[in-house]
Design a protein that fits this description.
Distance between the termini: 37 Å
CATH topology: Aldehyde Oxidoreductase, domain 3
Order of helices and strands: EHEEEHEEEHEEE
CATH superfamily: Molybdopterin biosynthesis MoaE subunit
Structural class: alpha+beta
Radius of gyration: 16 Å
Shape: elongated
Number of helices: 3
CATH class: Alpha Beta
Largest sheet: 6 strands, antiparallel
Strand content: 35-45%
Number of domains: 1
Amino acid sequence: MKCRLLKDNFNIVEAIKLVSSPKVGGIVIFLGKVRDENYGKKVEKLIYEAYEEMAVAEMERIREEAMEKFPIEDILIWHRYGELEIGEDTILIVASGKHRREAFDACRWTIDEVKRRVPVWKKEITDEGTFWIEGEKHVKIN
């Protein structure tokens, strides 16, 4: 499946195989990670929650749009959910194309659209409390 929500970590080798073909001359990978700091707050862990049916459906729409918008061969979007520790993978986008430029362009556009449109919510556990993250806005919940 090229659009998935996963509890467990990604198999990047499997993902690359899913978008590969003899026509592919370049593959671009975006791999999001849980970092230990965000906007000056020390992050202890993240919790991703999702409306699974809607999230996967929206990722599929974004994938279709990317395939139409860019001259790429294929693209894959996988997003993690659940409780993630510092250093763990959060999102994987793999774009393949005949040439690198279209794969880079599609990958960048896709991550921006996923962040903007897909109903996956990020809760940040920090040394200053717990926050829902809405874009660059933090909403403290305790």
